[in-house]
Design goal:
Layout: E1 2-6, H1 10-20, E2 27-32, H2 36-46, E3 50-52, H3 55-59, E4 66-69, H4 76-85, E5 89-93, H5 100-113, E6 117-120, H6 127-137, E7 144-152, H7 164-167, H8 171-187, E8 193-201, E9 212-219, E10 224-230, E11 238-245, E12 249-253, E13 262-264, E14 281-283, H9 289-292, H10 295-321, H11 326-340, E15 350-351, E16 361-363, E17 384-386, E18 396-397, H12 409-414
Parallel strand pairs: 1-2, 1-4, 2-3, 4-5, 5-6, 6-15, 7-10
Antiparallel strand pairs: 7-11, 8-9, 9-10, 11-12, 13-14, 15-18, 16-17
Helix pairs in contact: 1-10, 4-5
């Protein structure tokens, strides 16, 4: 897969480390940055043949199959619109946009262009999360009653986060996007939220937005999802999840005190771990940061699906070239039905929430959503489910409700 990277900063480099180490045939062929020096340095470090300060120039190249957006939040919308303009598959870092209006614009643009689009929710791909979710789906916890997710650290790594016009918000938008999605996976993505209570405050940093928040989300089945987020926590990055069910409990610690504790009075120079506040004293390095944060699994899933989509499109084009046989006519009829579906605009920008280690999947052509509506995949919207191993896997809509998403963990366990 040939990838254009939009953004050459901290997260762009994290993504690049995951991509170039993922599969021997995946390469970054162009990079865009708002500053030429950053673009040039990124190109040198990752052996990228083309760099530019012109976003469209990085996207529209013939040697680009997919675009990865790792830009400040205010640039996500124009970047997705440019990808739609040039019919390029696109994957976007979190949060999708600064608000729901921007997110909906991206959804509609992806639909109109019939492109693959994925949302990079990495903490739904961490090894511990994947294992815990499978345990819940296997019924180990019974019915989930409460899910808590916490992310806290001293503050963002770039100055633009502090500017509400660029970021769109504070700690809730930056961190709770992870926490809410984690809880929804545990509780069941077909279970609607019915009530929300939240406290937020600016406790430390001189900014307009909140730097700390706690929220409770009540779901239709009575379960509670709790998120705790902060840009004021000292001591590194605290990533923890807890789940309680009628038959069991899970506690997860993703980052601090994970079994690698090190003390040094002199330090060793250079980078220790994301959000580490120092390089001496007691430290908690992470053996494989990209893996621990879910980046490797996340990009494997995205690249796998785009490659699968491209093969499917090529087969369809070949069939049509041979003439209007039964298979081509069936494809045309399916496209016409999808084009007429009133809710179709919700279906083309996707979140790949989780996956198991197995790579095999089968396409679903007849998967009604929880509301009974037909949300079948087409060239622009691939729906997949795990095959022989029975682990459910979807490209889940990133839109405004959870009504059309997957079955709950209890339902999957019963299946």
């Amino acid at each position: 897969m040939r990838i254009a990277m939009l953004g050459a900063g901290f997260i762009g480099r994290f993504y690049a480390d995951s991509i170039v180490g993922l599969r021997s045939r995946d390469t970054i062929t162009s990079v865009y940055s708002r500053t030429e020096a950053s673009a040039r340095k990124f190109a040198e470090d990752y052996d990228v043949p083309f760099y530019t300060t012109d976003m469209e120039a990085a996207i529209k190249r013939k040697d680009v199959d997919m675009v990865c957006i790792s830009l400040p939040n205010n640039l996500h919308l124009p970047a997705v619109l440019a990808c739609a303009k040039y019919k390029k598959a696109v994957i976007c870092t979190k949060p999708l946009g600064r608000n729901a209006k921007e997110g909906l614009q991206m959804l509609k643009a992806a639909e109109k262009a019939k492109i693959f689009a994925g949302y990079l929710e990495d903490l739904c791909y961490t090894p511990k999360f994947i294992k815990s979710l499978q345990s819940i789906r296997d019924g180990a916890l019974g019915n989930v009653m409460w899910a808590r997710s916490r992310e806290a650290h001293p503050g963002p790594h770039s100055d633009w986060f502090w500017d509400r016009n660029q970021s769109g918000g504070g700690a809730i938008l930056d961190l709770a996007c992870h926490c809410v999605e984690i809880s929804r996976n545990y509780i069941g993505k077909n279970v609607r939220p019915v009530e929300v209570m939240c406290w937020a405050a600016t406790q430390v940093h001189p900014i307009e937005a909140e730097d700390s928040a706690v929220g409770l989300v009540k779901y239709a089945n009575g379960a509670i999802g709790q998120f705790e987020v902060s840009w004021t926590f000292r001591g590194g990055m605290d990533l923890r999840d807890e789940v309680s069910g009628t038959e069991g409990t899970i506690w997860l610690n993703h980052w601090l005190r994970t079994g690698f504790d090190m003390f040094t009075s002199v330090g060793e120079g250079g980078y220790v771990a994301e959000k580490a506040e120092g390089s001496t004293g007691w430290m908690f390095p992470v053996g494989d940061e990209q893996g621990a944060l879910g980046y490797v699994e996340m990009f494997a899933d995205m690249v796998h699906e785009v490659a699968h989509l491209r093969r499917r499109q090529a087969r369809r084009a070949a069939r049509r070239q041979r003439g209007p046989g039964p298979a081509a006519l069936a494809d045309d009829a399916a496209d016409a039905r999808l084009a007429d579906h009133p809710g179709r605009h919700l279906g083309l920008l996707w979140r790949l929430d989780r996956r198991s280690v197995a790579r095999h999947c089968r396409c679903r052509a007849d998967d009604p959503g929880a509301d009974g509506a037909d949300h079948r995949g087409d060239d622009g919207a691939l729906r997949a489910e795990r095959g022989a191993d029975g682990v459910g896997r979807r490209l889940t809509r990133l839109a405004l409700s959870s009504a059309h998403d997957s079955r709950s963990g209890a339902d999957l366990a019963r299946a």
